[in-house]
Amino acid sequence: MYAHPIHDFQYKNGELYCEGVKVSAIAKKVGTPVYIYSHTTLVEHFCKIRAAFSEIDPIICFAMKANSNLAILKALVNEDAGFDIVSGGELKKAKMVKADMRKVAFASVGKTEGEIIEAIKAGILLFNVESKPELLNINRIAARLKKTVQVALRINPDIEAPTHAKISTGSLKNKFGIDLKTARQIFLDQKAYKYLKINGVHIHIGSQITKAAPFLRAIEKALAFIDDLEMDGVRIDYFDIGGGLGIVYKDENPQTAKQYADKVLPLLRGRKFKVLMEPGRFIVGNAGIFITTKLYLKDNGVKKFMIVDAGMNDLVRPSMYGAYHEIIPVKKSAVGKVTVDVVGPICESGDTFAFDRKLPDIQDGEYLALLSAGAYGYAMASNYNVRPRAAEVMVKGHQWAIIQERETFKDLVAGSKLPGFLK
Ligand code: LLP
Fold first, then answer.
1. Would you say the CB of residue 107 lies under 6 angstroms from ligand 1?
2. How many helices (DSSP H) and strands (DSSP E) are in the chain?
3. Fold of domain 9-38+285-412
4. Is there an atom of ligand 1 within 6 Å of 208 CB?
5. Is 347 a catalytic residue?
6. Considering the chain, what percentage of its residues have pLDDT values greater than 90?
7. Phi then psi for 143, rounded to 5 degrees?
8. Is the CB of 207 under 6 A from ligand 1?
């Protein structure tokens, strides 16, 4: 278990609890695989950021891509969170939980016409725009709708962030953002975009970044860019510093919200613009665990495999990024340890949650918990191998509820059709 109290999943008398509820009781009732979230951990992490930055009262836009379960979103809206959205689907979810649209920022490198129209009509705060053709398109659509739309340009600060290559976004080798020269020219030419108010700057250099230094470099670069613009008479009303704050999965020692704020605030103090931020993982990552049942132990003479009822379709992070998730038994037992690869039932070698992990030699049918699974877990789940997506449960104190039903086979084939020429 983690050394510090960063979440509300703790053993009591050898049984894993989420807040006041026994995890095994939920698993028995709902079945596995199942995601379980702690409401308290979720809200506390949001509040940690809000408290650390209270001096400048930023708009905290939860990055919905990390976890878009409606109950998670509602719990955050109840704390006055805004949202960073990246699709029409996420916009619809923001509407469903009655988010304040003046706290919604719409990013994504490829917004479609339909998404842009829906977002303008919804009255979102601003678009984070990632290319000149997209800017022209939003201007054209805004003209048609006779609306003026606020825009922040996502600049690419050309900074390499020390994280996994697949989640690093701040260098010009990535598809994200607009290079500084082009962005500057757009700001200076903004009269050409009659229906846009191009008054914001956005950066996001990557995800799971555990130290402040790369953030500071990117923010400093963006501020120098803003200063230059202001000298040329361009007014910047919004500065969106992105998300990316890392969390504990294994033995990382990530900055706390307070440590991050202590370093960043001196750069932002006294500025005229409103600050936005877009944390996802930091808020929800440690608030969720993922429960699976051990099915079998297979020993092929070379290796031992602990086969579980969850697969890479349920939690893809280990296969996709080689990500580490701590695995613990839901019921502590005195049995000896075995060194195993923890694998799912899917027909790919990559369907592996852990390599050479020392785990208690639990019996078939017992439960395991994969920790830090709240962010990019269910959100990235798929139906690969015609597997229904897992259920999700939220716990608050001694109460718990299913917040997403397990998919059924009927859900999986809904919309499938056999064409007449096959009959
Ligand atoms: N803002 C923008 C523009 C983003 O692209 C992202 C994440 C965030 C905010 C939120 O980043 P966070 O605070 O959660 O690090 N699936 C990967 C992570 C992909 C992140 C994508 N963008 C994973 O499981 O590690």
1. yes
2. 12, 20
3. Lyase, Ornithine Decarboxylase; Chain A, domain 1 (2.40.37)
4. yes
5. yes
6. 92
7. -60, -45
8. yes
